[in-house]
Every structure is written in structure tokens, then in C-alpha cells.
Design a protein that fits this description.
The protein is of the alpha/beta class. The chain is built from 14 helices and 15 strands. About 35% of the residues lie in helices and about 15% in strands. Helix 1 crosses helix 3, helix 3 runs antiparallel to helix 5 and helix 13 runs parallel beside helix 14.
Length: about 425
Amino acid sequence: MHIVLIYTKHITNRLTYIANVLLPESHFQIKFTTSENEFNTSTGTKINYSNTQFDNAIQIVPHGLLAQKHIENIAVDVLSKNGLIQLFNNKSELGFDVLAASFYLISRYEEYLPYQPDAHGRFTSQQSIAGKHGFLSQALVNRYMLLLHQKLHEICKLPLPPIRYNALITMDIDSAYAFLGKGYWRTIGAYAKLLLTCNFAKVAQRTQTLLGKADPFNTYSFFASCLRPYNLKPMFFILMGDYGRYDKNISYQGKYMQKLIAQLKTYGTIGLHPSYYAVAKNKIGTECKRIQKITHEDVQHSRFHFLRLKLPQAYRQLLDAGITNDYSMGYADCAGFRASTSLTHYFFDIENDVTTPLQIHPLTVMDASLHSYMKMQPDEACDEISKLINEVKKYGGTFNSLWHNDTISNLGIWQNWQAVFMHTLKQAAN
């Protein structure tokens, strides 16, 4: 454990939060002081976060963002220097305010400001500063962390912390089965629609499945078996909402869902997939109780359906429901790093100026982003995934990928995408 003394004119919650992100307690012990005398007389490792000049300390000239408590539409200058994209540039030792830049990105400050939502009410990648300046594929906060560690190593002779890499393979279950468990009226309606459109092949497929043939969306044992050789344990997020336009899972009360959840528990971790309108209708607590009743366990993990993450309301409702881990921090329309990091970190509620107990596990890539939004072919998707995995391996954190039970079936529009899934496992594990 290496003690780092930070001098600042004002010790704020924003500053203490981001300092603990960049100088994690696994390797550093941070102390703050507003006393010039204490800072001057200290002989240990020192960071001067002020405009005042001190000897024997790394100086970071503050932008001012971390001294504030309010939210405003601030101008952010973005420059590329020596191959590193920098925000809040100045003439200090590092060339920019690495603390303010990291806080702005990882806290999602820009998502608290007015923006034009997409058709599903989401903040889109191209509205972000990362999208506008072309660094969505960079874990920039991780890079800033490494820069700071290297500076402490160079000037203060502190050893460099190890760069740790992990992989997480997850599945969202929006529609558990193609044909099974749909109930009498949904099944009759589906048959009627198929007959009216003369889709006799689908009629035969549905009938064969109802008579005992494997459902085409039943890819769960295959999914788990593929992960096993790589020593990867899956995580499943299951939709528990009432049936609606965007929530079309089978009933949580039916025997098919009950049996499926029991099966999935033997494979990995079960999480909640809050429904499309869960936040708007304040339903997260209700849906959480539904899945807990089935699993007979507290549910600690969540990812929003359609990645409908609106800050800070969505995260506050998760906390109210007792959920402590979220996996929604990614864009639907683009792969990459929404919070410019692959590091698990706590949610900082900017409006309330507080670090919360909710841990955010950033999402790196979703199958539908590559296929439906970015319009990639399987070979292009493999290249994109490899690039993102290499970024995380180089700068640390967790490569977190999202799949669906239907997308790895190799059927319909997902033909040849099973190979993309297998490529991901091989690259992520090595």
C-alpha cells in the first residue's frame, strides 16, 4: 500500500470519488489536505491539485469542474497529444486536468444535460463527446489511469500496479422460446397470422416444436457448454415484465419459465432484465420480487431491456430495489466504451453529489449493435470484437459482451453469427 498525499484548495465529493477511481485502494492509500504547510513538509508521494507552486510534487492544474456542485453545459476542449486524446487541456505537467477529464467521462456528466433521445428514449453514441471525436473504441479513463501511474513511477519511484484483465459473457433473455410457453391465445394468434400469410414452413416448425422437437431459441445448454472450456461462468438477465409491445417474454408464472430459471441457475448467475417501461412506471421493485420468488434468492444484478438507461433516475430505482450491480452502461447503436472505461466503478450521482453503493460493470459490445445498428457482416464483427478485447487486455478491466439466446441459434438473420460468438470466446479467454 502506497500513501499518496493530495493537496487541494477544496476537498469535494467529486474529487475524492475520481481520485479513488484512478488510484484504487488495492494499491494506494489517498490522503487529502488543504494545508500548504502540511503538504510542504511531507516527504512522501505528493500530487498538487491546485494553481499554487510546490516543490517535489506532481502538479495537476484544476479545470474547476471538480470544485463545483452544480451541473452546467461546459465547453470541453479535446486535443490529441502524443497519441493520447486529452480533455480540459492546460500547461501543467501532464498537459491537461486528468482528474476532471476522467470524472467528466466516467460519471456520464454529459447525460445529465439536455439531449435529443432516440426512438426509445436513449442517449445515443453520436451525441457523446467520444462519438463526436472518434474515441468510442478507447478505454480512455483506463489510459489516463496508466498515465498517472507511470508519472508516479517515474517521479516518485512508486511501483506500477499490475494491469488486470477479465472477461464476462452474458445473455439477455427477451424471448425465452420461439414457440413454447406462449399460452393459448398467443399460440392461436400466431397460427392465424402464419396461415393468412401462407407461411406453411413456419406452421410446420411451430407444430413440430409443440409436439416435442427442440425449440429454436433453446440455446442455453449450448451457450453454457461453449463457455466451460474457457473457464467462463455465464450471467443471464431475464425479462420479468408484463406482456406488451416491447416486452414479449413468456409469462414468469408459467411452468416453462420456472423450469428454465431452475436450469439456468445450474449454469451461472441470474439477474433481472427490467422491462421497457420499468423505470417510467416504477416497476423495478415489482419485477425484482417476481424473479426473487422464483429463484428464492436476492437478485443483485441488473441490465435494462433495450439498454434504456436514463441517468440518474434508472440507477436510483435500482438502488431502491436493493440491486447493487448494473451492466447497462453501453450503447445500443455502437460498440465501445460509453463511460470511456472497462473498469468496474461506483455510480456517482452528480445531482445529489454522492458516491452510491451501485457498482457499474461497463458493457463493451452487444450482438445487436454489431448486426442491426452498425450493419456488420460476421467477419467485420469479429474484427471489431478483437479490437475491443485487445484494448481491454492492454489497459485492464473487464471485456463484457452481451448475447441473446436467439442470436446464437444460427437461424434467420443470425445465420453465421454463432461463429462470431465462438470467436469472441476464444479471443476473450486467451
